[in-house]
Amino acid sequence: MMNLGIKARVILLGTIPAALFAIILAGYAISNVFGVLNHSLRDRGRIIAAQLAPAAEYGVISGNTNILQKLVQLALSNEQDVRSVLVTNNQGDLLALSGHEIAPALLTQIKKTNTPELARTNSIIFSAPIYRSLVEIEDFYDLYNQGADVGLNRDQPVIGRVYVELGTQTLLGLKRSLITKIALIGLLGLFLSALIAWRIGRNITKPIQEIAQAISKVGEGFYAQKINENSSGELRTLQSGFNSMSQSLQRGYEHMQEKIHEATQMLRHQAQHDDLTGLINRREFEVRLERCLKSAYANHTQHIFCYLDLDQFKLVNDTCGHVAGDELLKQISTLFTQRIRERDTFARLGGDEFGLLLENCSLPDANLINNDLLKLVRDFRFIYEDKIFNIGVSIGVVVINHDFKNTSDIMHAADSACYSAKKAGRNQSYLFTGGNVEVAELHSAAEAIANLTHEMDSGQFALYCQPIMPLSDQVSQRRHFEILIRKIAPDGTIISPIAFIPSAERYHLMPNMDRWVIKNTLAAYRELLDKSREKCDYVFSINLSGTSVSDKSLLGYIREQFSIYAVPPKNICFEITETSAIVNLKNTINLFTALRKIGCSFALDDFGSGMSSFNYLKHFEVDYLKIDGSFVREMHLNTIDHAMVRSIHSVAEAMSIKTVAEFVENAAILKELEAIGVHYGQGYYLGSPQPVKDLIEGFSILNA
Questions:
Q1: DSSP β-ladder status, 345-350 and 539-543
Q2: Exposed, middle or buried, 61 (CB in 10 Å: 0-12/13-18/19+)?
Q3: Are the CB atoms for 12 and 4 separated by under 8 Å?
Q4: Is residue 239 located within the same domain as residue 133?
């Protein structure tokens, strides 16, 4: 029943009561009619026997068997269903018989029990006594003359008996016929009931089925479904409700599609553009560069790639902070965008590096554009607060043609040309003319490696430190410094790591640079210990690159330096960026575990900028979590950044990890960090980087 459809249920509900009613009615009718038929047959048998008994009186008394024989034959022939008629005297002798003979045992049983009738399987035997009357009767007595007055005296002696056997076959046939007719009438009634129920069920289920089919379509994603509102009552309400729901779903779906389209466009834009400047990003730029290279091969067309690197960006960044650096990048981007052709591509490749792709452009036209950009930058003055800066740009120019095998070769060639422009005096363009890119690249790499190695060996690098200040009384008040590296130009200019770290990474010199920092940091700390008679309790944080983490010999080198300078490992903290830690997950865990055993502490730097930060955090046993400055620098203005800082701090605190906020550059940021409960802060507002040698001298004065 539970698996039946609505139509089948309606039919069953219509036919089952009708069937029950028909069965009851048929049973009642059959019972009554059969009873009437049975009584009718018995009455006929009794009447025939009762009428034959007086008529046979004379023949029994006189012994005239001929008269009796004619009488019984007349009864047999005139009455339907009479199978046998016989007359016996009082002694049981047979006087007359018509039909088949009745068994003497049955006659004896009837006479003995004095029963007027005896039912058998297919017949009923009726019996009536023959009395001797006090009147004389005619020789021929009309059996069917109802007016005759026989004047019977029931007190007279019995002189014989009349036996009449009536067959029940006709009665049974009549009963069967009656049952058949009643059954046919019942079936016809059931059919009509089922037909009416089917008709009613169809009227009910058709609109429901239409709604069900429409709902199925909606489930498949076809929301624009409308059904005819051709029913009445509750079904019409259901149809109307479905149409309203379908319209609402369709409107919601269309609105959702619009939002998805907008989100897709936004994500596509974000994937192709730089967040800070709004320019095309490096990934999209390389796609377009690849397209130009294919065009150069297929159509022999010429395109120009210009690699631009700002000359004084590091000075602005170091002097005024990252906010000023970001503002400079925005202004330069706007300035350049206004001067290039519409069909050209201008992109930010990273840091203070930009790319300009001039499609279908000759070299003379490219030189005109580059000269215009050089003049534009030369005349530009960047003003930040009370400071004014002159900005320059070095441009490496590459003609894109079939001499290049891939975009990587083009990028290296442009980088090499830009490097040559800087070496030639900055704020100028330089055309890459090397016919063999591989030779030029090897030459550039060898030159860069030689320069960096020489600079490290000749003391052109110096250690700086920036304080990490406690923001709460709940944490240790020990003085904590992050160790930084700077390059000192021959003219005494301080060069930020952004100028030489990319080259060191590109030519795999970071392990050498990291070891230089580790060695000189421990040497500086040894000097502090000597001046304080081993009482200095500063904490120095040393940054490790991802390449160094993968260096299996680094652990032995660190242990060796600890042994040489006898610096307590508890005073040294190693930092690694979140991204480097995740990329080198296994090596990072092994290195952290080994160094922790000797007493070092660890910090995860730039947390939040990498991939799946919270998921990977549980793999590292770190002491400090340095919240990425991109969330901190505008957290007092941006609610999302504020929420990110608060979330990172909450997770770290739950794991008993101390948090350090980078880029604390004003009082408003500091106030928000203290309200959240961040443990430490680092930034220009709390303290600018200073040479480590100045820290040592100041320490000597304090402990003199």
A1: unpaired
A2: middle
A3: yes
A4: no
484 and 427 together in one domain: no
Residue 321 sits in a domain whose CATH number is 3.30.70.270
Residue 197 reports pLDDT greater than 80: no
pLDDT digits (tens, 9 = 90+) for 376-385: 988 888 988 8
The CATH code of the domain that includes 166 is 3.30.450.20
pLDDT above 70 coverage of the chain, percent: 89
CA 205 vs. chain centroid, Å, equals 34
Q: Which two tokens stand for residue 698?
A: 């100041």
Contacts of 405 (CB under 8 A, 6+ apart): 437
Neighbours of 329 (CB within 10 A): 22
Residues 264 and 394 in one domain: no
Q: Which residues contact 77 (CB under 8 A, 6 or more apart)?
A: none
Last residue of a domain, one of 215, 237, 268: 268
Q: Say if 42 falls within a structural domain.
A: yes
Query: What is the Cβ-side half-sphere exposure of residue 438, based on CA atoms within 13 angstroms?
Result: 1
pLDDT in tens, 523-542: 999 999 998 888 899 999 99
Least confident of 250-264, 537-551, 554-568, 655-669: 250-264
CA 298 to chain centre: 46
Q: What is the pLDDT of residues 630-652, one digit of tens each?
A: 899 999 999 999 999 999 999 89
* Integer CA distances (angstroms), 139 to 55, 98, 339, 431, 657, in order: 10, 20, 155, 163, 141
**Reduced to 3 states, what is the DSSP secondary structure of residue 344?**
coil
Same-domain pairing of 285 and 263: no
Give the start-end residues of each E strand in 297-340. Answer: 303-310
| Per-residue model confidence (pLDDT) at position 4 | 63
Task: State the average pLDDT for the chain.
Answer: 83
The per-type count for the chain, helices as H runs and strands as E runs, is: 23, 22
Q: Is residue 232 part of a domain?
A: yes
Tell me the CA distances in angstroms from 449 to 24, 100, 487, 494, one per residue in order.
Answer: 110, 141, 15, 20
> CB within 8 A of 572, min separation 6: which ones?
521, 522, 525, 539, 540, 542, 562, 600, 601
pLDDT of residue 301: 86
Write down the residue that tokens 């990319």 correspond to.
Answer: 502
Domain that holds residue 296: 273-435
Provide the number of structural domains found in the chain. Answer: 4
Same domain, 97 and 240: no
Of 207, 235, 268, the domain-final residue: 268
Q: Are residues 260 and 289 in the same domain?
A: no
Residues 305 and 340 in one domain: yes
Main-chain dihedrals φ then ψ at residue 481, nearest 5 degrees: -130, 140
Task: Identify the weakest region by mean pLDDT among 258-267, 270-279, 610-619.
Answer: 610-619
C-alpha span between 698 and 673 (Å, rounded): 29
The residue that leads in pLDDT, 594 or 606, is 594
Q: How far apart are CA 53 and CA 43, in angstroms?
A: 15
| Residue 332: DSSP 8-state | H
Q: What is the pLDDT of residue 120?
A: 81
Confidence class for position 237, pLDDT limits 50, 70, 90: confident
552 in the same domain as 418: no
Q: 202 in a domain, yes or no?
A: no
Q: What CA–CA distance (Å, rounded) separates 176 from 171?
A: 9
442 band by pLDDT with thresholds 50, 70 and 90: very low
Angle, helices 282-299/233-272, rounded to nearest 10 degrees: 70
- Residues with Cβ within 8 Å of 191's Cβ and at least 6 positions away in sequence, in order, are none
Kindly tell me the sign of the dihedral angle through the C-alpha atoms of 48, 49, 55, 56: positive
Which residues are within 8 A (CB) of 654 and not within 5 positions of it... i.e. 6 or more apart?
A: none
